[in-house]
Design goal:
Layout lengths: L3 E7 L5 E7 L18 E4 L6 E4 L9 H8 L2 H7 L1
Antiparallel strand pairs: 1-2, 3-4
Length: 81
């Protein structure tokens, strides 16, 4: 339905863990001070519950359309900051 975001990440011990967050609680990259050109970009929540680190340089985005709905398009973010 587009209201829940699944973030797959590694635990301290290297195990994959899926965390589910409300899309409405995620801070878009356009509202944060993060630069998408950096190696790591912080993905934060308004509630401050968790912070995730995303590497856009070495990682990959499986669904660019849904990513853009939540965080904004990467081309726009690169040009604006």
């Amino acid at each position: 339905s587009g209201t829940l975001l699944r973030v797959a990440h590694l635990t301290f011990w290297g195990w994959r863990q899926d965390t589910y967050c409300a899309v409405s609680d995620m801070i878009p990259l356009s509202e944060s001070q993060e630069r998408v050109q950096d190696v790591f970009v912080r993905i934060q929540q308004y509630s401050g519950k968790q912070t995730f680190y995303l590497t856009l340089r070495y990682g990959r985005i499986l669904d660019r359309e849904r990513f853009a709905q939540v965080f904004g398009t990467l081309a726009t973010l690169k040009n604006s900051k």
